[in-house]
Design brief:
The protein is an alpha/beta fold. It is built from nine helices and six strands, in the order E-H-H-H-H-H-E-H-E-H-E-H-E-E-H. Helix 6 links the parallel strand 2 and strand 3. The mean pLDDT is 96. The protein binds 1,6-di-O-phosphono-beta-D-glucopyranose and magnesium ion (MG). The site of 1,6-di-O-phosphono-beta-D-glucopyranose (B16) has 20 residues, from helix 3.
Length: 213
């Protein structure tokens, strides 16, 4: 297989910020009296902040104006950023550094492709601020996953053709996005059950990247 670059999703693949997203949205939902649980939260994986809010507001009894929605998203993000302050290199998920080092040894390019506008902050907090060859994130795209825009942007920044890229994703929306972009995809975590993924694994600790590419 001609893989020349690996593009990693951030939240749920490199670091478990997904739990902090849940806690912050849960606080907003509780304050607004809207039902929200971990199962509904699974639908927010990989989708943008405003789209996540829309999914939560589907269960609201009242209609929210655009200004109210922007305000709620801002409050959520402020609380989420407070939670992110606890992040450190110790929060990098199991197996991640082993795989990244294996790829560097083989001169395979590595990038981040994340829907999160907090990507630069998170990468700094976990000590990987200048580790990747390219970073494409929610600040630079119009359409979030399942649209392939963020992964195509990462490939473009690396100057590698999409068909030569492998994406590592934890979200069904991210698996869809990678395939729509003409890339191969390794589903981990929640997406390890996604049968559309080219490869699947519980997490990166059980992956020998040299066997895949
Ligand atoms: P933010 P990923 C995604 O990150 C999260 O999975 C998703 O839950 C979140 O809504 C989205 O980022 C936007 O995040 O509010 O920080 O801009 O999985 O694409 O790395
Ligand atoms: Mg993710």
């Amino acid at each position: 297989m001609s893989i020349r670059a690996v593009i990693f999703d951030l939240d749920g693949v490199i670091v478990s910020t997904d739990e902090y997203h849940y806690q912050a949205w849960k606080k907003i939902a509780d304050e607004e009296g809207i039902y929200f649980d971990r199962e509904i939260n699974e639908n927010l994986r990989g989708v943008s902040r405003m789209e996540s809010l829309e999914i939560i507001l589907k269960r609201a009894e009242k209609q929210y104006s655009e200004a109210e929605k922007l305000n709620l998203a801002q409050i959520k993000n402020d609380f989420y950023r407070e939670l992110l302050n606890n992040l450190s290199p110790a929060d990098i998920l199991t197996g991640v550094m082993k795989v990244l080092e294996q790829l560097k040894e083989r001169n395979i390019k590595i990038a981040i492709g994340s829907s999160s506008k907090n990507t630069p902050f998170i990468l700094e907090k976990i000590g990987l601020g200048s580790y990747f060859d390219a970073v494409a994130d929610g600040n630079e795209i119009k359409n979030s996953k399942p649209d392939p825009e963020v992964f195509l942007l990462a490939a473009k920044k690396l100057n590698i053709q999409p068909e030569d890229c492998l994406v590592v994703e934890d979200a069904d929306a991210g698996v869809e996005a990678a395939l729509a972009g003409g890339m191969k995809v390794l589903g981990v975590g929640f997406a390890s059950n996604n049968e559309k993924a080219t490869f699947r694994a519980k997490d990166l600790s059980v992956v020998d990247i040299n066997e895949i590419i």
